């Protein structure tokens, strides 16, 4: 009985810690520091938002002051409009500076496009330097990301990673036994950058950054930065076991049936590529975390992982999507991904 009471008291303490996990936005200098770009990084007067710019001289970026071992990380981002082909705006976790040979990474990459064609969103996961086994997915957006800020968030726990757009889950990567070291497991810092991805970002590199339209500016605000820090930090839970439970029981980490239904609806309507249905890129290999038992879902995708049915916005996009039905697009070489 005494041991049961102790156990109940310990669990109650854990629940109090879980409830204490604060995911409210932080001022920029409370959680972040400039990474590169000099005056291409412009802090707002109130210190709570920042503009990242890309011009012919340089891109820009910032990084969290602490590294985190799991947590919830979010930013509201307003993207540049007009011609943005080749431009990449990224919000991601990484430890490449500490583990250059076996780094972990969890990515949101927002991919620009030519005039009249919408931005794309790419998610990706690397663990233990598994860059040769990219786990990309790409989606259209159900809104105009250039008209106002929209939120992009990652919940990372010891058992799963969930990507959110405007509070709705769009991807869940579960740490199944077969994934092994490919699941990100080492402490990571949080990054935000804008840079020139001309070689791949838009239509496999066919459309490049045109600096006649520069500077390209992305605005970051509502920076939520809460997790289990890898070093002492007065603003975080100091007991790692309590913090890990707090992260795992926090609302973004708990995938209810209703949230999974919403995620499936988003993916049916907006996912244009998934590595889980790409039989060409890795010679038929299916990653262990991929849920491919749904034959109906698999039938909605070409053997190279692109959707058969989701038509990107824009007249030229529709022509290309139609042409792709009967065969692999000539603009998308083996081993590469198309942003269109």
UniProtKB/TrEMBL annotation:
InterPro entries documented for this protein: Beta-glucanase-like, Beta-glucanase/XTH, ConA-like_dom_sf, XET_C, XTH
Residue span, GH16 domain: 19-220
PROSITE patterns: GH16_2
EC number: 2.4.1.207
Active site positions, chain numbering: 105 (nucleophile), 109 (proton donor)
One GO term of the biological process aspect: cell wall organization
Organism: Eleusine coracana subsp. coracana
Pfam families hit by this protein: Glyco_hydro_16 (PF00722), XET_C (PF06955)
Signal peptide stretch: 1-20
SUPFAM superfamilies: Concanavalin A-like lectins/glucanases
Name by which UniProt lists this protein: Xyloglucan endotransglucosylase/hydrolase
Region (Disordered): 311-340
Predominant subcellular localization, coarse grouping: secreted
GO cellular component: apoplast
Family as reported in the entry's similarity comment: Belongs to the glycosyl hydrolase 16 family.
GO terms for MF: hydrolase activity, hydrolyzing O-glycosyl compounds; xyloglucan:xyloglucosyl transferase activity
UniProt enzyme class: transferase
Post-translational modification, as annotated: Contains at least one intrachain disulfide bond essential for its enzymatic activity.
Function noted in UniProt: Catalyzes xyloglucan endohydrolysis (XEH) and/or endotransglycosylation (XET). Cleaves and religates xyloglucan polymers, an essential constituent of the primary cell wall, and thereby participates in cell wall construction of growing tissues.
Keywords of the record: Apoplast, Cell wall, Cell wall biogenesis/degradation, Disulfide bond, Glycosidase, Hydrolase, Secreted, Signal, Transferase
Protein location: Secreted, Cell wall; Secreted, Extracellular space, Apoplast
């Amino acid at each position: 009985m005494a041991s049961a009471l102790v156990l109940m008291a310990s669990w109650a303490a854990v629940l109090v810690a879980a409830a204490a996990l604060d995911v409210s936005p932080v001022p920029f200098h409370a959680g972040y520091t400039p990474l590169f770009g000099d005056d291409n990084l412009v802090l707002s007067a109130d210190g709570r938002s920042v503009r990242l710019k890309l011009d012919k001289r340089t891109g820009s970026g910032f990084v969290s002051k602490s590294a985190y071992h799991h947590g919830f990380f979010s930013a509201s981002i307003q993207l540049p409009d007009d011609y943005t082909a080749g431009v990449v705006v990224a919000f991601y976790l990484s430890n490449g500076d500490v583990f250059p040979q076996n780094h972990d990474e969890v990515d949101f990459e927002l991919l620009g496009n030519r005039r009249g064609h919408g931005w794309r969103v790419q998610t990706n996961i690397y663990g233990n330097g598994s860059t040769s086994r990219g786990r990309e997915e790409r989606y259209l957006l159900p809104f105009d990301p250039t008209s106002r800020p929209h939120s992009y968030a990652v919940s990372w726990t010891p058992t799963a990673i969930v990507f959110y757009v405007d509070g709705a889950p769009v991807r869940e990567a579960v740490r199944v036994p077969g994934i092994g070291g490919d699941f990100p497991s080492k402490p990571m810092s949080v990054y935000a950058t804008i840079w020139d991805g001309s070689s791949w970002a838009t239509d496999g590199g066919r459309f490049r950054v045109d600096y006649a339209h520069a500077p390209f500016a992305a605005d970051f605000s509502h920076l939520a930065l809460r997790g289990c820090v890898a070093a002492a930090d007065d603003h975080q839970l100091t007991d790692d076991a309590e913090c890990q439970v707090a992260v795992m029981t926090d609302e973004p980490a708990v995938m209810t049936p209703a949230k999974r239904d919403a995620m499936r609806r988003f993916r049916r309507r907006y996912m244009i590529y998934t590595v889980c249905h790409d039989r060409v890129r890795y010679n038929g290999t299916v990653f262990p975390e991929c849920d491919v038992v749904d034959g109906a879902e698999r039938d909605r995708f070409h053997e190279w992982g692109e959707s058969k049915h989701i038509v990107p916005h824009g007249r030229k996009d529709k022509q290309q999507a139609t042409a792709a039905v009967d065969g692999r697009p000539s603009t998308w070489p083996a081993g590469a991904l198309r942003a269109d």
